[in-house]
């Protein structure tokens, strides 16, 4: 049975939840997401698993330690690229989209159409939007850098105010 470690992190945008497997960071919950929903999402994705709440317990995940360190550096404007290992689970299409999101440089944006063309599916802008919406690792896999074809801010799981904050932090908005 797979063990998933999770903890809470207080950041400049509010409380995040992070979770990791032994392979890598697997989930980031944005402020406003209920803890119960975060945990139910882990159970849905990973099935029968051992969920380990690191807050207040002895055993901790070195991957969550690294994610915590990198997220705090990011929010202080001192980190432009995450290096924490990732364990992204989704459909092949979703994983292609998420891999493409990782290629959007810090401080830059791309449109849904740009992502669709980059993965060889030029007519799949809406499907890219759907995969973006299912991104289990917001901020680390920078779905906040995806904008409308006219450069407008559209959709973000954490709300447009958080998206604006992240893009301003990166000087991209």
From TrEMBL:
Residues 92-171 form the Methylated-DNA-[protein]-cysteine S-methyltransferase DNA binding domain. It catalyses: a 4-O-methyl-thymidine in DNA + L-cysteinyl-[protein] = a thymidine in DNA + S-methyl-L-cysteinyl-[protein]; a 6-O-methyl-2'-deoxyguanosine in DNA + L-cysteinyl-[protein] = S-methyl-L-cysteinyl-[protein] + a 2'-deoxyguanosine in DNA. This is Methylated-DNA--protein-cysteine methyltransferase. The keyword DNA damage applies. Keywords: Cytoplasm, DNA damage, DNA repair, Methyltransferase, Transferase. It comes from Biomaibacter acetigenes. Its EC number is 2.1.1.63. Residues 4-87 form the Methylguanine DNA methyltransferase ribonuclease-like domain. This enzyme catalyzes only one turnover and therefore is not strictly catalytic. According to one definition, an enzyme is a biocatalyst that acts repeatedly and over many reaction cycles.
